[in-house]
Amino acid sequence: QVQLAESGGGLVQAGDSLRLSCDASGDTICISAMGWYRQAPGRAREWVAHIPTGGYGMYADTVKGRFIASSNNTKNTVYLQMNSPKPEDTGVFFCNAKRISWTSTLIGDSWGQGTQVTVSS
């Protein structure tokens, strides 16, 4: 079992920066990748970024060049550095972890409760 806890959300002005954190606990050895999704009011949850263990970050086109995902595997923590956020980035950001079995087979996803990010113009 993996538990995820996001932090760092809040109010930020457009053009400023914000860093989200996600701490994983439990059976963290089963995590193959961690990432971020977001959900704006009235919109479906959408993928933002993810970073495989020992790999490089990958990003949705809407945030590419502005957001940077990074991880500290020793601390079981993933970050999302939000540079030049826009009002349309406003939403609830969810941390995600891909879980694998001992055979390295993907068995499912774990989700955090989400952290609210509000970007004002």
Broad structural category = mainly beta
Task: Figure out the total of helices.
Answer: 0
Oligomer: single chain
Span of the ends, CA to CA? 40 Å
Give the DSSP E fraction (strand runs of 2 or more residues).
over 45%
Can you tell me the overall shape? elongated
Structural commentary:
The chain has 121 residues and is mainly β. It has no helices and 11 strands. The chain has strands spanning 2-7, 10-13, 17-26, 31-39, 46-52, 58-59, 67-72, 77-83, 91-100, 106-111, 115-120. The strands form 2 sheets. Strands 2, 4, 5, 6, 9, 10 and 11 form a 7-stranded mixed beta sheet that branches. A 4-stranded antiparallel beta sheet has the order 1-3-8-7, with no helix packed on it. The chain is elongated and about 45 Å long. The N and C termini lie far apart (40 Å).
List keywords for this structure.
7-stranded mixed beta sheet, 4-stranded antiparallel beta sheet, 121 residues
